[in-house]
Structures are given as structure tokens and as C-alpha cells.
Amino acid sequence: MPSTYPNFRHSVAWLILLMEAVFIVLSYFFASDVDAGFSYPDLQAVSHMLVFGFGFFLTFLKRYSFSSTGFSFLIVILGVQCSILMENVSVLLTEQSLSGTSGAAMSMVAVVISIGAVLGKMNPIQTIAMIVVEIVAFYVSRWINIYLLQASGHVSMMHVHLFGAYFGLAVSSRLSEPPPRSEKNASTPRSDLLSMLGTLFLWVFWPSFNSVLAMERNRAIFNTCLALAVSAVTAFALSALITKDGKFRMTHIRSAALAGGVTIGYAADSIEHPWIAMLLGLLASAISILGSSCLQTCLPTLKTHDASAVHFTFGLPAVFGALAEVVSYVMKIQTTLPSISYEVILSVGAPCFTISAALITGLITGLILNFKLLKPIPVSKYFEDQMYWELFEA
Prior knowledge:
By secondary structure, the protein is an all-alpha fold. It has one domain (32-377): Ammonium transporter fold.
């Protein structure tokens, strides 16, 4: 295997250049104005989340930090270009953009969440193939949500957490599992500190993310700030309560501090009372930590290795947020509609469809990634920077 990897790395370089050439050619033929309402501050906030937030968030593996940050950066810059092309296709097919360049960058959150589930288990060629398939699948899912299930552009974008988490878990289920107590599949205080730095970036910029497509932006920002604050406080409290020695556990804080922002995203611009946003933040953090403790034993039976705990950081809080949005909608229309209406059924169907689409396309993608043409890496080479990066001893 090592003797063939120089040629393999060269093939990665040629693949990247080929993809860039394809993007340029397709942009020539399919270019359109998708940014009538372009806002650079919005794009800047989302870019900070993608590059700094998720880039550092995924550095917890002690021997995979170069790949976590470096490949995340490569994935983002390639994926955003692919997302912009999908926006152009949307303009050609429907004569209107789904969300513009800022939305194209927001769509990449699904990809980086999925990468967290398969972190360290795929080579760059497999990763590039996965992001292209996932971006196309996510945009098709959004089109169906908006035009068939009548979801708003904001709500359909908030499904990015659902789609990313369950797509990544489905792909991971098709990959070989690492040994349960692999020495490489572990963190160090330094890697945990870098990962916590990524969490802090995400925590700070999450209100901007939730408000980009919201109708009531100031309300969305305010509610998200409240939910994030309460979820972070709850994370500290629950972490100390459930550990045997009463000490805080970094993995709890790193994951549950963001849960409130994920959950509140669906209804951030429609919640009128601050205490509701705070309650959702508290419950989201509890679901993240307690779900991690209670359901962790179920994953081995499902043959799913969740490298970054994306199920408990993004998946379960997003499911809870989608349910909360449906309940909020029902409460608003109950005075005018005496029974469950067609609109309520559609609002329930949208997240259910998103999860189903993510699982099905993820399973198919996982099967494709096992083709020998993509050169899957053996389990013994999981979680290693030296496969791809030039390293120097200190």
C-alpha cells in the first residue's frame, strides 16, 4: 500500500484540477445572476463557521489534525463552487434562486457535518466523490421540500443539520469499523483544546447562520443567542452531574453547547416569547448529553461508527427542533382550523422526507465509496495524517 500511494496522491491532485476545470466550463454555460440580494456580512459569517468553526471542531483526533483542518478547507472551497452551480441550475429550471451565494455556503454545513461522521476513514478521492453526491442530493431534497411540501426557504435550509447528520451516519455504516479502543481513535488535551476552539467559533457565529434566510432577522438572532446561552450552561451542569467524579467532560461541552442553536433554528424568527427559546435551548442540551449516554450502546448493534458524535450534536437536536417547529405551527393555526390540516401534514412530512432522503442516498453513496476504483483505505491506516501530509518531527 505505501509504495502505491505516491501515484495515488498525484491522482488526487489531477482530480482536483479536473474538478476545477469542470466548474469553470459549467459556469461559462450555466452562469446566471443568483445574487440580487447578496450580502457579504452574511457570507462572511457563514464562511467563518465553515473554515474556522468546523475546521477546528474536527481536530480532536490526535493523529489526524492536519487532515481535519486541511481537508475541511479543501472540501469547503470545492463544495461551495458546486453549490453555486446547483443554484444556477435552480435558476434555469425554476427561474428563481433558492438562496444565492450565502445559501450555497450554508448548504456546505450538511457536508462538513457528514464528514464528521466518517472522519479519518476515507481518502481524499472518496471524500470528493461524497461531497459532490451529497450536495446534489441535498439540493434535490430542498427543491422537493419547497415546491412539493411547501416548506419555506428558511425551514428547508435548516434541514441542513438533519440531512448532514443522517447522510453521514448512513455512509459510515457502509465503511469498515475501527477497533473499539483504537489508540489512534483518541484525543489529547491539545487536540481537545483545538476542537473546543472550533466550538467557540461556531457558538459565536450561529445566530448569524440562523438569521440569514429568516423573515424576522433581529428576532431570530435574539432567540438564537438565548437558546445558545442556556444550552451551554446546561451542558456544564449536566456534564458535572453525570460523570462519576463530578468533573466537566470536554466532549459534553463541545457538543451540547451548540445543540440549542441547532434546535432553535427552525422557529427562531417566529418564537415571540424569550422563555420558549430558553426552554428549547435547555431541552436541546439535555437531549444531546443524555442521548449520548443512553443511546451510545445502540450504535455498535447498528454497525455505525460516529467519529464526531454528529448524531448527538446535530441529528437529535435537529429532530427536536423540527418537532418544535411543527408544534409551534399547530398552535398558531388551531384557532382557525379545528382539526389537523393539509398544511400540518406537509410540515410533518418535510423533516421526515429529509431524513429518509439522507439515509437512502447516504447508504447508496457508502456502497459506491467501497468500489476498488476509489481505493478505500484499510482499517490499519485510519486516522493518520502521514498518509497525506508532509510531517516534521519537533
